[in-house]
Amino acid sequence: MTADGAIAGAVEAMRLGALDYLVKPFDALELPLVIARARRAKQTSRAVEHRRDAEAGFFFGSALAGLQTQLERILTADRRMHGAQPPVLIQGETGTGKTTIARWLHQQGPRGAEQLIEVNCSALPETLAESELFGHERGAFTDARSARMGLFEAANGGTPLFG
Q1: How far is CA 140 from the centre of its chain?
Q2: What is the pTM of this model?
Q3: How far is CA 23 from CA 6, 20, 27, 101, 103, in A?
Q4: 115 in Cβ contact with 43 (< 8 Å)
């Protein structure tokens, strides 16, 4: 924000990484829009770090017809709900396709247009898990040189997938 409305200042600010540029006096109604835009940009950039390439569609076949019926029931219930969606817990042995089913539920469900954040929890060191999942502020610990958005916040409105 500046009282100097020169174009050179705005260009320099954007070059240095500013997401927006406000000139005083500014419209108070404009500030929440600018903050929301900056928050979405930060969520998107954090989500990109954990984005996986979309895989081919899931084919159920006759052997998995019962599973498909159960998943369709979950999606039907999700579509009827207004407001926050409840979490879905998928349990099973290693290699049984839990991640594939979670991706399918996300893509087919009401959150399909939002972010899908995938995290391999076994690869997260215990000392970094809290910081990665919940984020941190600058100076919160020795190596916290800047604020970092947590994965739960980055997935807000979307789906966090923890494996």
Answers
A1: 22
A2: 0.53
A3: 9, 10, 9, 49, 44
A4: yes
Single out the residue of 97, 34, 27 nearest to residue 61, CA to CA.
97
End-to-end CA distance of the chain: 42
Judge whether 117 and 155 are in contact, CB under 8 Å: yes
Torsion of CA 42, 43, 46, 47, to 10 degrees: -150
Q: What is the token pair recorded at 59?
A: 């084919």
Contact 111, 157 (CB under 8 A): yes
Alpha-carbon distance 62 to 111, whole Å?
27
**Would you give the DSSP letter of residue 142?**
T
Pure H helices in the chain: 7-15, 30-48, 65-80, 98-108, 126-134, 151-154
Model confidence over 111-151: pLDDT tens digits? 777 777 777 778 888 888 888 888 888 888 777 788 888 88
Q: For residue 112, give the 3-state DSSP assignment.
A: coil
